[in-house]
Each structure stands twice: as C-alpha cells, then as structure tokens.
Amino acid sequence: MVPNEENQLVPKEDMFWSCRQSLFDEMKKKFSQIESAADEPRVLCIIQDTTNSKTVNERITLNLPASTPLRRLFEDVASKVGYVNGTFDLVWGNGINVADMTPLDQTSDKSILEAGFEVGKKNFLHLTDKDGEQPHLMSEESGTTDDGNQERFIGPLPREGSVGCTNDYVCQNYSYSSILSKSETGYVGLVNQAMTCYLNSLLQTLFMTPEFRNALYKWEFEESEEEAVMSIPYQLQRLFVLLQTSKKRAIETTDVTRSFGWDSSEAWQQHDVQELCRVMFDALEQKWKQTEQADLINQLYQGKLKDYVRCLECGYEGWRIDTYLDIPLVIRPYGSNQAFASVEEALHAFIQPEILDGPNQYFCERCKKKCDARKGLRFLHFPYLLTLQLKRFDFDYTTMHRIKLNDRMTFPEELDMSTFIDVEDENSLLYELFSVMVHSGSAAGGHYYACIKSFNDEQWYSFNDQHVSKITQEDIKKTYGGSSGSRGYYSSAFASSTNAYMLIYRLKDPTRNAKFLEVNEYPEHIKQLVRKEKELEEQEKKQREIERNTCKIKLFCMHPVKQIMMENKLEVHKDKTLKEAVEIAYKIMDIEEAVPLDCCRLVKYDEFHDYLERSFEEEEEDIPMGLLLGGVKSTYMFDLLLETRTPDQVFQCYKPGEVMVKVHVVDLKTESVAPSISVRAYLNQTVTEFKQLISKAVRLPAETMRVILERCYNDLRLLNVGNKTLKAEGFFRSNKVFVESSESLDRQMAYTDSHLWKLLDRHANTIRLYVSLPEQSPGSQFKRTVNQKASGDSGNLDEACARVKGPLGNMRSVEAILEESTEKLKSLSLQQEQEGDNGDSSKSTEASDFENIESPLNEVDSLASAENRELENQIQISDPENFQSEERSDSDVNNDRSTSSVDSDILSSSHSSDTLCNVDNAPIPLANGLDSHSITSSRRSKANEGKKETWDTAEEDSGTDSEYDESGKSTGEAQYMYFKAEPYAADEGSGEGQKWLLVHVDKRITLSAFKQHLEPFVGVLSSHFKVFRVYASNQEFESVRLNETLSSFSDDNKITIRLGRALKKGEYRVKVYQLLINEPEPCKFLLDAVFAKGMTVRQSKEELLPQLREQCGLDLTIDRFRLRKKTWKNPGTVFLDYHVYEEDINISSNWEVFLEILDGAEKMKSMSQLAVLSRRWRPSEMKLDSFQEVVLESSSVDELKEKLSEISGIPLEYIEFAKGRGTFPCDISVLEIHQDLDWNPKVSTLNVWPLYICDDGAVIFYRDKTEELIELTDEQRNELMKKESSRLQKTGHRVTYSPRKEKALKIYLDGAPNKESTQD
C-alpha cells in the first residue's frame, strides 16, 4: 500500500494501472500527430552545394512536410551537409541565374509552402557562400566553442599526410579554409614552413613581450624598398603588425627567414631554440648599431656574474666579470642518476663552488705554488628578462649516443632570485614566469611550441604553430617532465618526452613593467605600416575570393588546320556565362586565324575515353559556368573540348547517354583502313539500327555491311546478330568499329578465315621498332627487302640487294647466293613433306623450320639466313682470331656498362598466340602510317588450333633460353610472322657511324625468330649476337628468353644489337666474382662465363683458367682456387670438384659465384664438413685480427672452440665466441663489439638458435675472456669513434652511431651566403 494525494492508502495495483493508462494516452497523442503529418502534403527539396568548403560538393534531398518553417529547413540542411547554421545561404536553383536571386530568409517562420515551394515537384536550391565567406564546417566550429580537451590540449598535435618538424614528431595541420579565419582567442598563429617550429616559438614569445615589441615599434626603417627585404628589424616589425592586426588564423614567416639570408633548405633544418635566440639577438644588435635600440638586448636580457678562484691557504682570490643572456641549468649532475627536483635546486648547484685539489690544484699567484682552491660563480646582476635554459640534451659516453633527459624538474610561477646573489640590492628580485618553450620528442628531433602568459589578461595561451588556444596553470605543470610512477634508474627513458626547455621570467617592477602600445599610441610609421598591411590583406582576400570562385578545368581543342590535339587550362569565374567562357577558351587556344569565334563551342569531353559527353544548347549560353559545371571544384570528372566547324557545317547535338563510336572503313580491294569518322549511338540501339546509322554516315549499303567491334587488343568481334543491343555487344562510352560493305565472296567465308579478319588482325599486331646494329657489323653493308610480288620468283626482289665483300676479297651478290640456296631449300622442303606423308612423327626440329613455307617471304627469309650462315662460316674460317677478339671486346663493353641480363618476363608479361602470318599479294596502306609493304595478311594454323605457343618443355624445366636443340642445331620457328626492315637515318647525337634499321614486325613473333630475321643485317648467326632492349632512361637490359614473343614491345621502342655468343640449350651465363676476405672491398667482379648443365665443378674450373689468365691476369692452377655460392655479398657453400651442375648444384640465369684463391691445398673434401670464417677480437688493444678459415668435421661447438684454440693459442676454457651480424664481412665498430654481440651462447651445436650456422661462410668472432678491455680517455674514445665511423662508412656498412649531420645555424646580415663558401 502507498499513500495517495489525499494521504489515503491505495493498493499498489491501482497505481500501476493508472500509470499504464497515462502512458497509453501519451502514445496515442503522438500517433495521432504522426498520422496527421503523414496526411500532410510533402515538398521535395534538392539542394546542391556550390561552395568550395569541401573537396567534393554534395547534393542532398529532403522530403519535408509543407508546413515546415524556413528556419527548420536551414537547420536540416546544416545538419545534413555538416555546416554551421547561419554561415551559408540558400537560393533558388531552377535554371535561374544565382547571382540575381535573393537568398531565402533563414530566420523566417514562414512555411516552405508560403515561401514559394511547390508540392509534387522538384524544388531545386543552391547552397552558396554567405556575405562572400564560405560556410564553416561543423567540426571546426565545435572545436572553437568547446572548453574541453581540444581547447586545453597543448602538446604537439599529430596530423596525417603533412610535413612535420621531424620524422617522428609533427605539428598541427590546418585546412586552407581554417587559416583564413582568426582564432577565437584573438591571437594569430604562425605557419610552420617545414621544421621552423623552434623559430615560431621564439617569435611568439618576443611578440608577447611588451618591452621588446614596443621598442621594436619605435625603431623606424629609413632605407629603400629593395633593402627592406633583407632588413631583419623591419621584417620583424611587419610580422608583429600582422600578428596584431591580421584576421587570418595564421601567417607566414617566409619574409622573416628571407631577411635572415635563408633559402628553402633552411626550412627543413631543425635547430635549437636557445641557439636561435642568441644568434638572432646578435643579428639585431648588428642591425641596430648607432640607433636608439642599439643597447636594447643588453638592457632587457643581459646579466652579470663573477667567475672566481679562491686559494684556501692564503685567501687570495682571482676573478673576472662575465655577462650572460641566459642561465644554463643542468638537469642531472654529471655521473649522477638522480635529477635535480626543481629550478631552485639547479640554480643553487649552478653557484655551488667546487674544490680544486689533487691533480687539479690551482697555482696561486701569491703563494707561488699549487694549492687547494675553491672555484665557483657568483651572480652580480640579474637582467630584467631572465632566461633559464634547462639542459635536457646530453651525450651518453656509454652508448656513444646523444640523448634527451626527460626527468621531472619543477619551476615556480614566481621566482625569488635574491637568495642567489651576494650583492645587496634594495630592489625586489621577484620574477614572474610568462613564457615556457616546450620540446616534445627525442635528441634526434622533435617539435617546439610555446606556452605564454598574456600581460593584458593574465591568461595562459598555447602557441602551437598555427594553433592558438587557452590553457590553464595545470597544463603548465604538465611540462615539468617525468613520469607518474617511479621507475628507478630508467625513469628518464620511460618519462614523457614533452617537457619545458626554456623559461623566461620578467622582473616584477611596477616602474618598469610596460603595457602594450595601443593603436592610438603607435608611432606614425607603424600606423602607415598597419594601413599598408591591411590593404595588402584586403587585396589578398579579394584575390583569394576570386580564386575560390574560379573554375579550373582542362581544355582541349583539335586545331582545325594542323589537326593536332592541343591542351591547356581554362580558368573562368563561376559567374561567367557559357558564351563568355567560349570567348576565353577561343583566345587561350589561339585559333583566331584558323576559324571565326561563331564557329566554336564548348562541349563536355572525357579525355581518357576520347568521348564527347554532351553539348550545351543555345538557351544555356547565358547560364553561369558554376551552374553548368556543378559548382567550383578542385577536380572535375570531365574536361572541356573547344569544338570547331567550318562555316557551312552545323554542330551536331551530343546528348547525355549517347556513346561515341569511331568508325574505320576497310577496303578489301586496296587492303586499306581509312581514318576514323565519329558517330554517336545509344546503348539500347540494335545492331541493325546501328548499321543504318553508319550507312548514313559513311554512305555504304547497310544490307551487305559487316561491322567488327574492337573491344580490346586482339578482340575483334563480328556483330552479326541484328536484334542484339549495343550494350549487350559490349559497347561502352568510347568504341572503335571497322566496317566493310562489298559483294565479294569473302562475306561467305567463316569470319576467322576471311580476308577481312586477316587484314584487321595484322593491322592490330604490327609494331615499329628501331634497331641499332653493331658498328662493324658484316651484314650492315647490304640492304634487304623482305616483301616481294606474288609471282613467287625468289630472285625477283623489289629492291636489289647490295653486293657483299667477303673476307677473302671475292665479290658475290646476295641475290646470287639466295638463288643458289633456293634449290637446296626446295629439295629440303620436299624431303620434309615426304617424311610427313610416311607418318614419321619424330621430325627433327630443323625439319620443322621449313614445314610451313608457303610464301615468297618465307623463302627469302630462309635463303637470307642460309646465305648469312655461309657468309659467317667464311668469316670464321678466314679470321677466327679476329672474330673471337671482337666477341670478347663486346663482353668487356657490357661489363663496363654494368648491363644486367634481365629476363623479359620480369620486365613485362609475354603474350602467347596461336595466330600465324604470311605474305599476301597486294599492299595495304594503314592508318598508322605503314606503307604497302608493312603489313601482311594472316591465317590460323590448323596444326596449332586450340594450343598455346610452342614451348620446349626441356627448356622450360631447365630455365635456359636456347635456340639450339641437344645436337646443337637451330630449332627455328614453325610460325612465320610478318617482318620488314629497311635502313634508317637516326637523329644526330645517336653516335657517329651507328647503323640503324627501321623494322616493322608482328609482335607475336618470338625472339628466336626475330633474331633469325636480323641475321643478314648483323652479319653473323643469331647464336652469335645478343638483343638488348633500351628503356626511356637509356638503360639496356638483355632479352634472353628466345621462346617468348615481342608482345611486351610497343611502337617506337629501341633495340641494341651486340656481338657475343648466345647460350645453347642447357647453358647458363654466370658472373664470376673474386672473394677477398681480408680486403676492404671483399667482392670484386672478374668476368662472365658460361656453365653448362651436366658439367662438373672441376670442368668449369678448367674452362675458367685460360679466361682468368687472359682477361684478369690471374695465373692459377686448378687446385689453388675454389668456387663457392654467392648470395648478395655473402660467401656460402663451397662447391667440391665432383659436384655436377643441375644435379648437385642448382643453377639459374644470371647466376653469380665466388672464386676464392687458396693459400694451400683444399681442406674441404666432403659435404659433411663446415667452413666458417673466424676473426679474433683483442679487447686490450681494441683491434680485430684478420679472417682465418676454420674447417669443422661436424656442427659441434666444442670442436669449434678446439679449432679456435689451436689457431690462436688461447686455452680452451678461456675461448668465447659470437656470431657476426649482417652481410659479410659483418663489420662492427670496435667500440661496440665487446658489449653488443651475443658472446658465448649456451648451445652445444651450431645449427640451433641463436646461431643457426648450417652453411659455409658464417662469420665467427672470438676472444680470450681473461683479456681485459682497455680503458680509454674521452679524447681517445672520441678519436677512435671518428676513425671507426670513417672506416665503416668507406666499407659501406652500418654505422651504429651516425647522428644527422646538422647545418650550423647562421643569420646572414649581408644577404644569402655564397654557395661555394658554404660547401662542406
């Protein structure tokens, strides 16, 4: 029971039911409201964002009740697009000029129906800038009103994708729009140029110092405008004026740094803020000489102290007076692990005297002897502005690293300095803190920002580059450093890296404490400067507004006379009409003399697909470009094309949704492909309708028309289903089709066997190559044309071949040689056919070379190859030595050029095809400029239907690339592709005497067949020259996979031919390097060799001996050197003489091996042995001995120690060893080897963790554990560190301590430094 309103008890059940009834009533009321709203008419609003506040402009749709007030509409739009309500306008956008429309009233309670919105229709609105200012993003605004973490955060603000102060620590990032609006604090930030946060911190501190700012304002610049650029005080004046008056969030400091004489590289160099403070003050003193401000720095920042030494025997005291601009305070005393707890404690330590005794005794002038003495510092005078530097950067001599001390050190808001001075002073020495410069990061780099107290309102602010925000005293305490918990010795390593680095206090003296000058108190020259800067800022704002409202879009135009596509950029204000934009584009493209203005128009264009999206109607000429283009954007999804016409033509209308089709007319009689004409079609059109459309455009009958769509490379599709749509056939925005309409019988043939298909196939696959021949190529003296008439007479060539002078002096025409060889080839071909009829399936590879000879082209090619082989044999017989020397010199050239033989399948994928080509009768002029001899027709090989390109499986498995079978005969090719070559005059600069060929070839030809076609021009067999592909950077890579096609090549690629023997089947090209284990550079290239499958290591060594003697000057015997595996620079497995390549040793293309010269007989006899390289470390001498090889019979650690004991004489129980790190020779600094390596691992075998020594070539360091490490003085250590650093850098190995080379901080008073004088 519970009491009711009348204090009577009522049952609990009654109360439950009454509460339930009230809930039902409330829900019913809400449902009725919803029902009434559902019955209310709705208004569809479509709002397009036309501002530039976001990268991508949004388009939102709202379906609102008709009674919705305008005020609520603005709120909904703001919520949807993420803008702050009240920072944008809404105007009507139903095809009306936006500039002429009055914005809707965002405060009105009028319903949208009353405001002119229509029910049942689309109501278009444009979201625009308000009063010329772009909308504020909601996240940005919320950040300005929030008093939470964002407002209070003072640390370095990380950002993505921005340039920070170092690699590890970065500064706050701001969008361009955020820089335009001033911070809510009223203060202006400074833009970080790259790593100038240290400069920004100091400049903001000086700006917030009333005495410095007022004195700077009183100085007047009286020189010329040219000298103003390099005047540091004047540029500081300008900067301070901008910081005080600018409406921007942040301003640039580039003018100030330019006055320092710095270039852009200085912005990427971080310096110490205390160092900058001193250098800047020196520069200002120099510039202010003989002015009222000449002594300003000393008056504000300079103090005095006495440096004294007092004899403890006679009391005599020697001293000198020194001045200081800042007081450096030690964080942690030298040799101590405990830091000072506070600034006061560090100041007491600063003036704490030390006793000079023992070897450090002081020579007393009065006692005339060395005596114990007390040495110390006494403060005589403190400056008005007291600067304390907390020395957080130190050098750790144990690790030889620069470190940062992050220990906690407190500092008071008010500091009484009277306890630190001996001189009695009636004036108060109470200082108040007003600036804390904070460093966040490590000794390697970090980020600076400043916490500064304003003397106007006593409020603390964080000046973090562009960002200025309010902070509290609690935030200042966070910069003390240290960690929340105690971690003992390592507390500094785990402490926060954000801590105070410089403190600036001001003396509390009402008679001297100044206030900032008010505007009416400014000197006249500052007032003029303020006006000047305001005018410049207004101009910049207007220009920025113009830029922000300017549409920038790619513009193209096909020149009406030259017929070349021109490209430019069209920049047009969003309020300019389409008609005005055409005039601007007309002038930009400079076609006034070629076509009148009224014959030009702008259309939407897609450059990538070469597609005209749509044209604009005449009624759209007066519509602003901003509306037509969908707003001002940084990038558009389309381009613009300035289309032209002749005066008697009419522009075609391009509607959205149409597709562009380029139509090429094919003439089978002349075998030509005409240039394209463009037609536009719809994807829902049928093929029959499409043919009718083309028929009108090209004036060919549609009834006999064949249409072939080229969807992609080698995909030619016949469109023969009349009722199928273009979309179903695969049409896209831009398409290419070939059409042919004739009454020939070719229409009745199967498409893939038709003349039309052959013509288009070769049109798509022929490429143009430029081939550079060897300078003294025997075949370069004659010219060869591979095309010939259909008469079949192999001797009747289109062009007579030149006569070739043989090596024996006789003259014989190539034509005669070809005729003589024809009979041989015919008889051989007949023999092959007979063997085929007899069902002999085991045809030789040589026979297959001539299996498909059906055209004069094949005969000519084969005859030329036969003649070339005969010619080459004559050359070799007549002068074999000359030929060998020529081949060797080519190899030497390749070595000098360091050209690697990179497989073509690594550079690009191959494209295999089963399509064959032969020569047809008539010439075919093509659109790509090839003449009538450039293209041949093609057919499918019945024998290869359904199969891939022929590959030799044995070749594929072995990984070799040979054009020879096991008997050494040429495998050739059964697939004959089109090939035509003719001399070509290369450009100047390609090398005097260089012979070039212009080659048109079917790119489906294999490299092997391509080389055979080149034989007559090179003058040697294809097995004796190599093909190098030349890339854009003039790098050359050898093409070695002979069974791959030229599909990776494209038009105008360059090829270089070099003499040198190609590989036979089962052979591999091997690079041989000499291993020099005790030389600074242990890896030295010797020569290129050829190893064969099945060859033993001893046989390869025998073949290497004469080459080593002739090419390298190494006169060796076969038992005095070994070959071993090479992995990068690491020596690996030792190859034994009986090892067989491909059976015991895996070998591959471009293989590399080490050749190691032995001091004595070979110790490695079996694979069970293990050869390691040992090196003794002598800690008492700080040096390493030379390498010595140790051969082990097993992987036992005990055996390794025994062997090391034998070669070193160290007792077995004193042997300690460690495995080397990194690549051979595992170099390490002698300053680190004693501590850094994992000495004496607790393992019994070498093949387990952490050693994992399972192969030859591992590096082992060993030492005598009883040998003590020598103690070095600081000077010796520094000297040794320099030597080691130099040694390791020369050998190209890692240097553990390699600090970033810092550029000295300088301010150049006479302009930028001379580059020659600043070279290191």
From TrEMBL:
CDD domains: peptidase_C19C (cd02659)
Organism in which the protein naturally occurs: Chrysemys picta bellii (Western painted turtle)
Domain USP: 188-508
PANTHER family: UBIQUITIN CARBOXYL-TERMINAL HYDROLASE, UBIQUITIN CARBOXYL-TERMINAL HYDROLASE 47
Record key words, sorted: Coiled coil, Hydrolase, Protease, Thiol protease, Ubl conjugation pathway
Gene3D superfamilies with a match to the protein in the record: Cysteine proteinases
Lineage: Eukaryota, Metazoa, Chordata, Craniata, Vertebrata
Source organism superkingdom: Eukaryota
Record's keyword annotation contains Hydrolase: yes
SUPFAM superfamilies, per the entry: Cysteine proteinases
First-level EC class: hydrolase
Name of the molecule in the record: Ubiquitin carboxyl-terminal hydrolase 47
GO terms for MF: cysteine-type deubiquitinase activity
